[in-house]
Amino acid sequence: MRRKIAVIGDRFMLPEVFREKIEKACGDNLDIRTLEAAWPDEPMEFGNAALGLDKVKEYFGDPDEVVDFIGDAEIFVTQLAPLSETMMQRLPTLKLVAVSRGGPINIDMAAARAHGITVVNVPGRNASAVAEFTIGAILAETRLIRVGHEALRKGEWRGDLYRADRTGRELNEMTVGVIGYGNIGTKVVRLLRAFGCRILVTDPYVQLSAEDRNDGVELVALDDLLSRSDVVTLHPRVTEETRGLINKDTIARMKPGVIFVNTARGPLVDYDALYDALVSGHIGSAMLETFAVEPVPADWPLLQLPNVTLTPHIAGASVRTVTYAAEQAAEEVRRFIAGLPPVNPC
């Protein structure tokens, strides 16, 4: 019997890549149908956008169209398509959902368990991409790459950036504080070692490896990290504990002139407090990749500050992320067909 698999990709996680990796892992005795959604050329929605999707945090796709497309498939592979309780009620043959993301935030997990649907994901799928991007973000601020670029685009030759009182600093003389030591934070630290900087880590749920300790990485309390770091970079997950972690009080504990980098998630930061600290100069500069509201409003005050670099939530976007996530999803499909337990159950 040919196993029926429905794949909804998009213009990042390409459906043809999913198909290629699934066929390579599972053979050709499959009935695979694919659909390409318009994300990211069109914005995703959030859980309060439609009736019955309140337990889905973010998604892309019309629920009725998604249900019609999945139809009688036993396996569903996707990145952003939603699956709610009412949708699952209409999909009695569905047994496996493979989400090619770090978390299944487009799936109502309680409903999936109640319906006996196994959900798997791809933790750390873009960890290398985000870690590399973070290093680039830090260098953009420490070596004044953004400042020089913006001036030159305006026809201004900033020779004054060679002055000792205005030029940038080298990482080998700086202390970098890494908040959150999961898949991304550990890769950031690994890359930072090459620069010879002092590295501080704070995360209440991890311990340093022997390699970390031998290289002089220190595991410290948050307050210690904030008071000692020349650069602070964020990498925790958003939880009730970490939401608003960077706020007026924690910013006040940072070193004057600190460089702040957020390539993690917008809800980790109180952006009003960050704005005030950037205007006052307590935070020297910031590189922001994620925001409280996305897309960012055109009149957002932080867009006007000269000491901020901003990018549109692209740190995790790389060609390798696409192929790696598709390979991991395909392996979960193979294991399901073979009757094996999943590698990354949710």
Automatic annotation (TrEMBL):
List the Pfam families.
2-Hacid_dh, 2-Hacid_dh_C
Please provide the record's keywords in A-Z order.
Answer: NAD, Oxidoreductase
Q: Which Gene3D superfamilies match?
A: NAD(P)-binding Rossmann-like Domain
Q: Which residues form the D-isomer specific 2-hydroxyacid dehydrogenase catalytic domain?
A: 62-344
Q: What molecular function terms (GO) are annotated for this protein? A: NAD binding; oxidoreductase activity, acting on the CH-OH group of donors, NAD or NADP as acceptor
Give the D-isomer specific 2-hydroxyacid dehydrogenase NAD-binding domain ranges.
136-315
Extract the CDD domains matched here. Answer: 2-Hacid_dh_10
- Family of the protein in this entry: Belongs to the D-isomer specific 2-hydroxyacid dehydrogenase family.
Entry protein name: Oxidoreductase
Organism expressing this protein natively = Mesorhizobium temperatum
